[in-house]
Amino acid sequence: MNKVIVSAKTVEEAVEEALGRLKATRDQVRVSVLEEPRRGWFGLFGARPAKVEVERIATPVNPVEQGLRFLKEVLSTMGLSVEVEVREEPEAVTFDLRGDQLGLIIGRRGQTLDALQYLVNIVANRGAETRHRFILDAGGFRERRRKTLQDLADRLARQVLRTGKEVKLEPMSPADRKVIHTRIQTVEGLTTYSEGEEPDRRVIIAPEK
């Protein structure tokens, strides 16, 4: 509800009632007086209450503040005491979590962290004029995961080159698959492609034909 019409004995009383209904403060609304109050004859006949239209003013959405507020609410609900470091860069905004029990936030191979990152991106950009990309990290997990995947890609690349047989990797998230694809692109004689449907989509490393 962004607009209400309220009648009351005075304009001020009508405005106060409208603010209560909208759960807003005076600086967050626009007030239009539709009818001034009239006392009437002897205070009895022809009396008319004041009538006002109060409309909430749309305020610009700050995606970073909105996303950070949502993230902190989730962490609080989980009962975790975690600090959030915010890094704003041209290509993305990173929320880097610091503290104990980060394993609960990361989850198996980063699945919980990825799910929370997905939600942060949705909530943070809700109502925003310009879309922002948010990355959720926890104690440097993203970099460690990237290095692990690159090492895996290097090892499997050597195997495929030696045997001439393609290798199927386990199902991975889109971000993890991208790391594998990018790494194998640097290896001459090999190619990669993905098969399957989410969440079981996986990378295939194969000899280049």
Automatic annotation (TrEMBL):
Entry keyword annotation includes Thylakoid:
no
GO BP annotations of the record are: cell wall organization; peptidoglycan biosynthetic process; regulation of cell shape
Xref: SMART domains: Jag_N, R3H
SUPFAM superfamilies registered for this protein in UniProt: R3H domain
Q: Which portions of the sequence form the region Jag_N domain? A: 5-55
Q: Mark the transmembrane ranges.
A: none
Keywords assigned: Cell shape, Cell wall biogenesis/degradation, Chaperone, Cytoplasm, RNA-binding
* Subcellular localization, as worded in the UniProt entry: Cytoplasm
R3H domain location: 143-209
One GO cellular component, as annotated: cytoplasm
Q: What are this entry's molecular-function GO terms? A: RNA binding
The protein's matches in HAMAP family, at most eight in alphabetical order, are given as: KhpB
Main function = A probable RNA chaperone. Forms a complex with KhpA which binds to cellular RNA and controls its expression. Plays a role in peptidoglycan (PG) homeostasis and cell length regulation.
Record PANTHER family: PROTEIN JAG, RNA-BINDING PROTEIN KHPB
Subunit structure as annotated in this protein's UniProt entry: Forms a complex with KhpA.
Q: Which family does it belong to?
A: Belongs to the KhpB RNA-binding protein family.
- Tell what the record comments on domains: Has an N-terminal Jag-N domain and 2 RNA-binding domains (KH and R3H).
UniProt protein name? RNA-binding protein KhpB
Organism of provenance: Planifilum fimeticola
